[in-house]
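In line with agreed milestones, the collection of sequences with tokenised folds has grown. One record among many is set out beneath this paragraph:
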Amino acid sequence: MRGDYQQLVDEISAALGAPATLEDRDFGLIAFGAHEGEDDEVMDPVRTRSILQRRSSAAVRAWFEAFGIARATTPLRIPPDPAAGVFRGRICLPVRHRGVVHGYVWLLDDGHLTDLALGGHGTPPDPRIAQAMETAARIGALLADEARAGSELGDLLRELLTGPATGRPAAATALRDALRDTLRFTPGLPLALVAVTPWDTSDTDAAPLPSLPGLLAACALRSPGGPTGPPGPPVLAALVRLRATGGAAPARTVAEHLLRSPRAGSAPATAAPSGPGGSRSSARSAPPRPGAAGIGGATREPAELPTSWQEALAAARAARAEPRLGPVAQWDTIGSYRMLTALPVTDPDPVIGPLLTPAHAELARTAEVFLDCAGQASRTAQALGIHRQTLYYRLGRVEKLTGLDLDDGEHRLLLHMALKVARL
């Protein structure tokens, strides 16, 4: 399938005598034509970055989208914008199928396409543009087919992960058979699930999966909320084939790529505190938080994927709550969060209520670092960059505010767990 895209992109490059690049509608690279020129100045840094990093930057995406490329049905001319890093103009060929945009073909204009008639407003396009748009329509049909196949696999994955336990064997069999028939997947190879949270689902049209080694299927799910509150934000479930020898490297590669998608990330928090020292009132003005990803344990049995999914969700929550774990965390590396993420979602323990006010954020951080350092004063003072006497003073204030005795192991355990749970 990807070879077909390359051939079609090469056809467009040859027809117009300009280097062409094909990206999906999330600006992920699919294929690119060779640049035949010898003038280094013609090499556009945006195109080079897209090829090397497999994705355009946020500034470049914003500049291009401002010209209405997602709604366009005919070619568009995009002027350069040095502020966004776009030093060369482009012609954008929207790749559509049955009214849905599936991607874009970008033609780098080094000057010889300036007078090329794009058509529109009652004027016919240059025959070369008409030929290129016909090729773009063939690309759109391929992307639509790929999107449908990916959607079907995603629906089967969703059924397995969210359906009743009694239907799990049948759902696992259906997914295994579909993977074998659609992707020629060999049953028995190790699989793992990746959770990316949060994931923007505002665009509900089907879109093809990015071309990543091992990525088999994906679907957006609603993450679980509290016992009385609404569900959490949408999260993406991505099924990844691991290497036969084991190891989570393919899953980590997929997770890192998905986190670079414009769909990953979140708006500013509006309710829950962001961690020890945060508060419900202060969280309303918090900046947008980046997305995080978790990787569940590997399994060779599709029926065990729901367990891998719960592990991936827990790891993603931990990575988002604890920056030192993220932005991608594996289930077997999140330590105590394996237990804490299994606890019901509740309000913070009353014992740390005073520490969660903005006025005492530094005390909460001090207490958490002290407990992370196993109560060793010298390590804690070094980690915080403060004098030991300052540390002792702060810990004394923590004891007064919470009523806990930090020389008591049970009290330490309660405070440590409560601070970590507050992060979640």
